[in-house]
Amino acid sequence: xxxxxxxxxxxxxxxxxxxxxxxxxxxxxxxxxxxxxxxxxxxxxxxxxxxxxxxxxxxxxxxxxxxxxxxxxxxxxxxxxxx
Length: 83
Hints:
Number of domains: 1
Number of strands: 2
Largest sheet: 2 strands, antiparallel
Shape: elongated
Structural class: mainly alpha
Strand order of the largest sheet: 1-2
Oligomer: single chain
Radius of gyration: 15 Å
């Protein structure tokens, strides 16, 4: 876990071994989604936006990082998430 925090706050990079915060509010309040559906929230801690020259280029990184997150979710808890 320390390595993850170092990547985020010291190295200011997207961690290879990232962590995810997952929240499924419909598990406790089904009224938050149409009947038969759920909502699911995923947060991945990443470095702050920073200053010019010290920022992650999200236009370049966003699709690859999103794919990594989706692949991790499909592998561990939500098979076929992208189908």
